[in-house]
Amino acid sequence: MDEWTHDGLRSVNDGLRNQVNDILDAYEQHQARVVEAYRQLETMRVQATSPDQLVVVTVDAQGVLSDLQLTMAAMRTTPEQLGRSITEATQAAARAAQQRAEALIAETSAKVDGMADLPDIVPDAPSLRDIRAAFREAAETRADD
């Protein structure tokens, strides 16, 4: 192999190495964003007040009730009215929590979908997205067992 060919191959190799390193750097940055998003989901709390102002509830990111506060006026209502107020406030908080969680996940997912992947530069290379999905599925399977 002559020197020109060798230098040309080295240049192509360096270019590919730089592209792969850029992709891996982007994935590492994204991984930090994903960790932060999960942390936000774990600590997310959403409050809602019933329309009649009798009840204030707090739910987590999954809509699970974590706190319930009754006003003094709530003590002067019927059990049926109080039940409706609790239900309305809890449903409103759960909807708000779901919307916030979906927005957070959508933002993170959109950034991943816009990133380059290994097959974009090397056609037969494995996709980092596919590898991540396989690990995620394996973790979910273990969690279900």
What does this structure look like?
There is one protein chain. This protein has four helices and three strands, in the order αβββααα. By secondary structure, it is mainly α. A three-stranded antiparallel sheet has the order 1-2-3. A hairpin with a 5-residue loop joins β1 and β2. α1 runs antiparallel to α2. The protein is rod-shaped, with a radius of gyration of 25 Å. 9% of the residues are buried.
Question: Gap between N and C termini, in Å?
Answer: 57 Å
Estimated structural class: mainly alpha
Neighbour order of strands in the largest sheet: 1-2-3
Overall mean pLDDT score? 84
Low-pLDDT regions: none
Coarse morphology: rod-shaped
Strand content: 5-15%
* Main β sheet profile: 3 strands, antiparallel
How much helix is in the residues?
55-70%
H/I helix tally: 4
Specify Rg, calculated over alpha carbons: 25 Å
String of helices and strands: HEEEHHH
Total beta strands: 3
Can you tag this structure with a few keywords?
145 residues, 67% helix, 3-stranded antiparallel β-sheet
Describe how the helices and strands are arranged:
Elements: H1 3-43, E1 45-49, E2 55-60, E3 65-70, H2 79-113, H3 118-121, H4 128-144
Antiparallel strand pairs: 1-2, 2-3
Short description, anyone?
It contains 4 helices and 3 strands; from the N terminus they run H-E-E-E-H-H-H.
